[in-house]
Fold this protein.
Amino acid sequence: MPASCGDSLPLALHVNGRPHALAASREASLLHLLRNDLGLNGPKYGCGLGQCGACTVHVDGVAARSCVIPAHGVAGRHITTLEGLGNRAAFHPVQQAFEDAQAAQCGYCLNGMVMQAAALLAREPRPDEARIRSELSGNLCRCGTHVEILRAVSLAAARLAGEDRSAP
């Protein structure tokens, strides 16, 4: 059901740094509101059960699965999607590292991997490989680019710490 169908109630969210006043049904997931009402296609619909990670967004800076979060459950909170993390004119360091490490293939997992990695690096700037693996273990990649993804997160961490001077 689209977020705007049914018995709609007012909803105020901050998405990608901008306030939004919307009407959404009680049943609407955050994912459906972001995609259908706000036109943000970074978060993907994958499993609909919060298990694949394709729908990952940040809620007040914490990685969260938007397909299982009721939109009204995050009223007044700050939501960041892939589009709010960075853009073609100014990539976030994690996005740039994923591009530089050629860590994307089909794009199914890309949103979740980038958003999960950005949340990790925001709270733990220099994770080791075991920590990165653990953090990303709930994000499914069907193409098998796991080695490149691990390399990208390590590269982003080094760049954010000022330890990697290589050109993007």
Q: What stands out?
A: The first helix runs from residue 30 to 37.
